[in-house]
Amino acid sequence: MNSAFHTLIGIALLTLLLLAPVAGALRERRIDRQLRAAERPLDHGRTAGRARPRASRRENRAAAHVRAPAAPNCTAGA
After folding, report:
1. Sign of CA dihedral 53, 55, 57, 60
2. Whole-number Å distance between alpha carbons of 43 and 52
3. CA distance linking residue 55 with residue 58, whole number of Å
4. What was the pLDDT predicted at 76?
5. Is a pLDDT exceeding 60 seen at residue 62?
6. What pLDDT does 49 receive?
7. pLDDT of residue 26
8. What are 29-48's pLDDT values in tens digits?
9. How far apart are alpha carbons 39 and 17 in whole angstroms?
């Protein structure tokens, strides 16, 4: 039982020691990928011929439920 516990503690310490460098390397890869994407020239002519994107269904559904404000009832006091 004691050796299994010591093995588990060793694995946990090794994981903690390796976690920081692995996270740093992944962060560096993400930053490098973003820098490469920023250096690429933008292709503006590719989207010029396309139609304007349609609104999503949720936006259409929300607009369909909008009602005009109710007018005050003018005949109530007469």
Report:
1. negative
2. 17
3. 8
4. 58
5. no
6. 52
7. 95
8. 999 999 999 988 776 655 55
9. 35
DSSP conformation class of 74 = T
DSSP state of 73: -
Token representation of residue 36: 């490469």
Within the chain, residue ranges assigned H as helices are 2-39, 45-48, 57-64
- Give residue for tokens 């390796």: 18
Which residue, chain included where needed, has tokens 């992944």? 26
Burial zone of 54 (CB within 10 Å; 0-12 exposed, 13-18 middle, 19+ buried)? exposed
Token duo for residue 11: 């694995």
pTM listed for this prediction? 0.42
Query: What is the rounded average pLDDT for all residues in the chain?
Result: 77
Structure tokens at 34: 């973003």
| Three-class SS state of 60 | helix
The reported pLDDT for the residue numbered 1 is: 72
- The token duo for 50 is 């396309």
Cα–Cα distance for residue pair 7/1, rounded to 1 Å: 10
